[in-house]
């Protein structure tokens, strides 16, 4: 018996791959998307070995290809008959301080994290409106709470954009639609494998993802994860003057 169907983008690595493992363990069937097909294949083998009753569909997808996003989401909805949840998770953090000669890196971050997320939300909403139910999950970041310096400037702006998109949808009160925004703190993944082992507050992938999955299962409108220390840090970040924020990040 399936608990429902979940599409996860950026499922080939890090938080997306771990969400896939944990949602499969909870009894969900999965549509997993990313560009690296061999990683998705390996993940499917691992999941179906642990949970043979689970159905796992794979789709090669670049989220910056707007048409492909729509095609893949429609195709997965048709394959499963219904999509209960779409987790907009694919993302990258390639930013460089503005005006330092890497507009390409900043644009790629913006196109993937914001425009790509918009395409995914648009495609998901088409399905959710038609079936009159669905849960849209946007993976934002604690960095979305304030403007961030240098390499983080564009990344933080994209994550604020994603959170705003989600709030707009929540405000619309689309019949049958739940919207969650997840704000992860530091969770070990491919994205930050170059970051020092002893980075303060960094948690391992399984622990961090477990906090995400718990919040998603509760359909929280927003969640800073893991709650400790990110709930109090979020409280301070939102209220502190920029001179303090600058030193916190
Ligand atoms: N880890 C953290 O501490 C942290 C904190 C805050 C927010 N987040 C957010 O959490 C999400 C997952 O990040 P992560 O830490 O798990 O990073 P990761 O380990 O680098 O994984 C990123 C995933 O996104 C996919 N992806 C990147 N560009 C893509 C594209 N153009 N089309 C399709 N898929 C693409 C990658 O797959 P392919 O390369 O195979 O396409 C990969 O599966 C991101 O949105 C990130 O911003 C992470």
TrEMBL record:
What SUPFAM superfamilies does the record point to? NAD(P)-binding Rossmann-fold domains
Cite the Pfam families for this sequence.
adh_short
- Keywords for this protein: Oxidoreductase
InterPro entries with a match to the protein in the record:
KR_dom (IPR057326), NAD(P)-bd_dom_sf (IPR036291), SDR_fam (IPR002347)
Query: Where does the Ketoreductase domain lie?
Result: 4-190
Q: Which Gene3D superfamilies did the record assign? A: NAD(P)-binding Rossmann-like Domain
SMART domains listed in its UniProt record: PKS_KR
* Family stated for the protein in its record: Belongs to the short-chain dehydrogenases/reductases (SDR) family.
The cross-references to NCBIfam families, in alphabetical order and at most eight, read: PRK08251.1 (NF006099)
State the protein's name: SDR family oxidoreductase
């Amino acid at each position: 018996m399936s608990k429902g169907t979940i599409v996860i983008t950026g499922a080939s690595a890090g938080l997306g791959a771990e969400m896939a493992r944990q949602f499969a363990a909870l009894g969900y069937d999965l549509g997993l998307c990313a560009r690296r097909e061999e990683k998705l294949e390996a993940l499917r083998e691992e999941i179906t070995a642990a949970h043979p009753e689970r159905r796992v569909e794979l789709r090669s997808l670049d989220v910056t290809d707007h048409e492909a996003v729509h095609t893949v989401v429609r195709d997965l909805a048709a394959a499963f008959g219904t999509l209960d949840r779409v987790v907009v998770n694919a993302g990258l953090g390639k930013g460089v301080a503005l005006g330092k000669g890497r507009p390409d890196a900043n644009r790629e971050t913006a196109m993937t994290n914001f425009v790509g997320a918009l395409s995914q939300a648009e495609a998901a909403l088409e399905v959710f409106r038609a079936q009159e139910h669905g849960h849209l999950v946007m993976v934002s970041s604690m960095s979305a709470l304030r403007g961030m310096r240098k390499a983080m400037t564009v990344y933080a702006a994209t994550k604020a954009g994603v959170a705003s998109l989600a709030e707009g949808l929540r405000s619309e009160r689309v019949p049958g639609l739940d919207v969650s925004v997840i704000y992860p703190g530091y969770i070990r993944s491919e994205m930050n494998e170059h970051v020092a082992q002893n980075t303060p507050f960094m948690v391992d992938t399984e622990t961090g993802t477990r906090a995400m999955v718990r919040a998603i299962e509760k359909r929280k409108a927003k969640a800073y994860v893991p709650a400790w220390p990110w709930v109090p840090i979020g409280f301070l970040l939102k209220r502190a003057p920029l001179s303090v924020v600058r030193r916190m990040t």
